[in-house]
Write a structure and sequence with these properties.
Blueprint: H1 4-13, E1 21-23, H2 29-37, E2 43-44, H3 47-53, H4 64-75, E3 82-85, H5 94-107, E4 111-115, H6 121-138, E5 143-148, H7 159-175, E6 179-182, H8 188-197, E7 201-204, H9 212-217, E8 222-224, H10 228-246, H11 260-268
Parallel strand pairs: 1-8, 2-3, 3-4, 4-5, 5-6, 6-7, 7-8
């Protein structure tokens, strides 16, 4: 995979129901290289991890230029496709979203996550259509993973939740989305219904979810960790700091699995 087109086509082909693309999300070059060394076929960013690492809160606080600088750094450091979490598209209008997509492709992305934040469906359709048009203009079959934020409605898996989710999924498919991302600790029967009714389905893996094998059997085409790995990394940093500062008798912990030499080698390779 040496060209942007080849990487984008490869990413598309990795979305297979029952044999999903597994994405332990990264937030900087070191985490991306670590994920790559673990055998990942593609790299995905987490907007939360990127934002936290740069001193911002998650939730569209990053500017387009700052976010895409991280995309560019990671894309240039890995030989596999990269899908970038671009939150709401870093723009108020469809034209601004299109500009973000063009810049994202230029930075080396083969796919993007584009969240709806429960915008009116017609408005989000226009934003996705603008994203697809920008990708077409660049000659890249960008994988547009449309995140549907119906987890905010509560009662995940319930009738109202399901109807709203599949209604949005159908609209986003018409607009040019490649797949959908539905958040929450979904039950197997809910995943099965969504997989039968929608585009290739991305589900979350983390505390409270089904196992990877269970998610795959239910029909997921893509499984991602979101911000969970970044949360775990920062939690470990806090645990060490707390032990050092508040527990004088604390014993040094066991050596980390990835020590100085191993991390240096990952960055060099």
């Amino acid at each position: 995979m040496t060209t942007p087109l080849e990487r984008a086509l490869a990413l598309q082909a990795m979305h297979v129901p029952g044999d999903p693309l597994i994405l332990p999300n990264a937030w900087d070059v070191a985490s991306a290289r670590t994920v790559l060394a673990s055998g990942a076929r593609a790299i995905a960013t987490t907007s939360a991890g990127v934002a936290w690492s740069l001193g911002h809160r998650d939730g569209n606080e990053l500017t387009r230029d700052v976010a895409l600088d991280t995309v560019r750094r990671i894309a240039s450091s890995v030989p596999v496709p990269l899908t970038a979490d671009i939150e709401g598209g870093y723009g108020e209008t469809p034209d601004e979203v299109a500009g973000t997509i063009a810049s994202c492709i230029d930075a080396g992305a083969s796919g993007v996550n584009l969240e709806d934040s429960l915008r009116p469906i017609a408005e989000q359709e226009r934003r996705i259509a603008a994203a697809r048009s920008a990708a077409d203009d660049a000659g890249i079959p960008l994988f547009i993973n449309a995140r549907i934020d119906t987890h905010r409605l509560g009662d995940i898996g319930g009738d109202r939740w399901f109807e709203e989710t599949v209604t949005r999924a159908a609209a986003y498919a018409r607009a040019g989305a490649s797949g959908i991302f539905v958040l929450g600790a979904l039950r197997a029967d809910t995943i099965e219904r969504l997989a039968d009714a929608t585009l290739p389905l991305n589900v979350a893996f983390g505390p409270g979810t089904l196992t990877i094998s269970e998610l795959a059997r239910a029909g997921a085409s893509r499984i991602s960790a979101g911000s969970s790995i970044a949360e775990a990394a920062y939690s470990l940093a806090q645990q060490w700091a707390t032990a050092m500062l508040e527990t004088p008798d604390a014993a040094p912990p066991s050596p980390p699995t990835l020590g100085w030499a191993a991390l240096n080698q990952l960055i060099r390779d």
